[in-house]
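Continuing the batch. This is chain 6 of the set; chains 1 through 5 are on the previous pages. Same settings as before, nothing changed between runs. Recording input and output for traceability.
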Amino acid sequence: MRANGSFKIESWDPNGREVDVDTGAPLVGAFIVRTFDGPDITGRSQVLFTGAFNEETGSGTYVAIDAFEGEILGRRGTLNFWHTSSVRRGAFIGEDAALRIVPDSGTGALAGARGSGVIHGDDEGERIELDLEFDDGDDIVDGEAAAGRLEP
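Output for chain 6:
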């Protein structure tokens, strides 16, 4: 299923920390709140954002993760998704753009959501495109056992 939406950034709060490594693209961090206003996605998200940007050349990259609450294609709930994108000399690098729903992060009618997409902006504003599928939940494993496999 494909879902499309537009969004606006309601607030952008720098995280208050400065990196003391001097590079050509200084790191920044922020906490962002944004609202989604349709057509297929409505709600809001809180975002942890990190980016590296060279203001002189107009080049940089960001990575971010959203905690979304709202409705997607008529399904109400919450979920997380991460996304990244880059620009080089002011030009969007399409192959660098990615968005993925965090596995098993959905709640309510968004439980079992999985998929990918992209966030992009242009003269018409900022938009999100998601390709979604939903699991039936039959393959749930023991979370503590799975987490133990990740420890060194």
